[in-house]
Each structure stands twice: as C-alpha cells, then as structure tokens.
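General statements about sequence and structure are easier to judge against a single worked case. For one protein, we set the task of working out the structure tokens from the amino acid sequence alone. This step matters because it turns folding into a mapping between discrete strings. The amino acid sequence and the backbone structure tokens for this protein are reproduced below.
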Amino acid sequence: MSTPPFPPGPPFPAGHPGPSPDARWGGRRELRADRRSAVVLALGLALAGIPAGVLWRVLAPRADFRITEAGPVPVGTPSSELLAAVDGVFVLVLSAAGLLAGLVAWLLRRRRGVAVVLALALGTAATGLVAWQVGELLAPGPSREQLTEVGARVSTGIELGSLPALAVAPFVALLVYVLGVLVNADDSLGRPGGGAARGAGEPEQQPEPAALG
C-alpha cells in the first residue's frame, strides 16, 4: 500500500480566516455593482409595456356592429377566428418587445451578468402585464347604453383570451440573451475587466510540488 506523497493536513494554516465570501463566489461584487443598472433596466422594460399595449390596440382586429331594433347586426363579415387573431397579435407584439429587450440587455456590455438576467426576466414579465392592461383599457367593449341605442355603430373590445401568452416576452428576451452567451467564448461574457474582477476575489493558487518518487 503506497503512502500519499504529502501528509494530510488542514487546507489553511492555523489562524488563517479562510476564503472570504467574495473568494467563494466572485459574483457577489458583480451583483452589487450592477444592482442600480438592473433596477433601471427592469423599470424601463415595465414602462415599455405602455407603447406595446397601444400597438396591440392599434393592430388587433375588431368587429363592427350596427344596433337595430332586432339587436346588433354585424357590419361586413367578421372573422370566426377573431378572438384567436387578437391573441395572435398580442403574441407578435410581445415577441418583438422581448427581442428588442434581449438585444438591449446584451449590448449593456459593462453590466452583463446575473443581475441583468434577473432584471431582464422580471422587466419583460412586467412588459406583458402592462401591455395587457393598457390594451384592454384603450379598447373596451360597448357599454349597455350603446347596445340599446338604435342606429349606433359599435366595435368589439379586445381581450386577452390566453394568459400563457404573457410568458412570450420573457421567453424571447432570455433566449436572445442565452444565444449571446453561447456564441461568446469569454468566461466574462466580454465584460470589460470581468476576468480581472473575478480573479481579484479568488485565492492565489500555489504551484503543486512534484510528487516524491
């Protein structure tokens, strides 16, 4: 039975405090540095839901009806897939918003990291929620009074029928960001000083002596 080349012993000499939290994971310092930028990004993406909701209201198809004594009569030939088309337009709008959000987050080269990914996910989720509420607020359905006014012309409102569509923007945004990570060969994701900052918190590795014969 061969003996180990070095006697067993503690990893650090007596009195040594051991590795600091930053040495165990250098990302703590990165999170603190990126906290403010991440909050601004998340708030900006949430506000982006307002124009997204306006765009949904403009692009979503709506059916027109003429109010008669016999009840509402459709003007033209409304599509039987009107509700699906409204959801489809919403998905397209959020897909575009997620694509732009992912690109913007990736172009923040100095802030690439965990904080930006979290802000991107939460911010685009807020984009979908705000767009949903703004779109439905701007295009409500006809009121009871309008439906009883003979000769009036009313339009159907827009309403999101598929709530899972709210996940489209975060999915697309994170997909774009992950693709950027995959094509980047640098462990620091191209972040200026990323390697130096990460290495500053890590304990210096001593060369291992050659094994005794």
